[in-house]
């Protein structure tokens, strides 16, 4: 189900110069109605055959199973990875929520589950409106030009052909791609592709936008445009989730921060407090 849903991921692990960031923290304002409710969510991956580090093997290997595996005939052999282990929270219209945590803590899995790309193995997720995981990535086609992908992505987000045409120039300007928009996407660098995805997926003012490690791409100008776009979405009562490694980015863009640790929420609250606690934790762990 998730095989062709290329979600922007840890490749985008750039550090940002804090001076490049937009200044000030976003206005918190009044909380709107709930937009996303996650209730006791568990997500477990089943990896067939392979054995992953830190994973749980459900059954002890019997001699028979080993024998069958050697013959390549083992059908029930899988490893379980419990990526999200009982997560609950409520997001509101108008919030931008940063999701932080070390690699493998379950951030991407949580966002994919909210986007409906992964089924919960336990628990419930309610989303008001249509979630857009940054973004239309599942639909964009590498062999086609950026121009064609703007149309396809826009239609996938529910815009009409006319609406996409009207917003075309704005999307291209936002992406900063210039004439490269007429080249096939496969010629783009990861950063260029990420910028175009961001530009397309925010063109429709989504109800719930999720950005997984894609904000760090681009120059200071692109980041400032991104911040403004996120503020606009929040003002239109949307909800934005942002995964980023740069705590400065998180503080500049978010009204709330959730810290994920080994599949559970370790802390959820004020950006300054949560990022400070996370920083202390990572420092202490580095010393061990
Ligand atoms: N498609 C997958 N199949 C199996 N295990 C996965 C898959 N995706 C992620 N995992 C595992 O789930 C855990 C959480 O991963 P992930 O949600 O990507 O964390 P993060 O985004 O915080 O780095 C990790 O142990 C990771 O190895
Ligand atoms: Mg991730």
TrEMBL record:
Gene3D superfamilies: P-loop containing nucleotide triphosphate hydrolases. Residues 68-287 form the ABC transporter domain. Keywords: ATP-binding, Nucleotide-binding, Transport. GO terms for molecular function: ABC-type transporter activity; ATP binding; ATP hydrolysis activity. SUPFAM superfamilies: P-loop containing nucleoside triphosphate hydrolases. Residues 1-33 are annotated as: Disordered. GO terms for cellular component: membrane. Residues 8-20 have a biased composition (Acidic residues). It comes from the Bacteria. Belongs to the ABC transporter superfamily. This is ABC transporter related.
């Amino acid at each position: 189900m998730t095989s062709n849903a290329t979600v922007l991921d840890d490749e985008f692990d750039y550090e940002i110069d804090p001076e490049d960031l937009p200044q000030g923290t976003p206005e918190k304002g009044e909380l709107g109605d709930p937009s996303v409710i996650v209730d006791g969510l568990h997500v477990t991956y089943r990896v067939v055959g392979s054995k992953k580090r830190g994973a749980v093997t459900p059954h002890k290997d019997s001699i028979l199973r080993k024998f069958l595996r050697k013959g390549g005939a083992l059908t029930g052999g899988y490893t379980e990875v419990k990526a999200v282990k009982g997560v609950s929270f409520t997001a509101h219209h108008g919030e931008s929520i940063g999701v932080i945590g070390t690699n493998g803590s379950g951030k991407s899995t949580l966002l994919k589950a909210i986007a409906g790309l992964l089924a919960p193995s336990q628990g419930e997720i309610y989303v008001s409106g249509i979630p857009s995981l940054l973004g239309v990535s599942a639909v964009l086609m590498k062999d086609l030009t950026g121009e064609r992908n703007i149309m396809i992505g826009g239609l996938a987000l529910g815009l009409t052909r006319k609406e996409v045409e009207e917003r075309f120039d704005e999307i291209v300007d936002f992406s900063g791609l210039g004439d490269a928009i007429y080249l096939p996407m496969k010629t783009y660098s990861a950063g260029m592709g990420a910028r175009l995805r961001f530009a397309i997926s925010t063109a429709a003012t989504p109800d719930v936008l999720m950005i997984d490690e894609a904000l760090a791409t681009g120059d200071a100008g692109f980041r400032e445009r991104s911040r403004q776009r996120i503020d606009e979405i929040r003002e239109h009562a949307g909800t934005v989730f942002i995964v980023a490694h740069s705590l400065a980015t998180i503080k500049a863009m978010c009204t709330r921060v959730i810290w994920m640790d080994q599949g559970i929420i370790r802390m959820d609250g004020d950006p300054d407090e949560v990022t400070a606690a996370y920083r202390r934790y990572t420092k202490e762990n580095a010393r061990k």
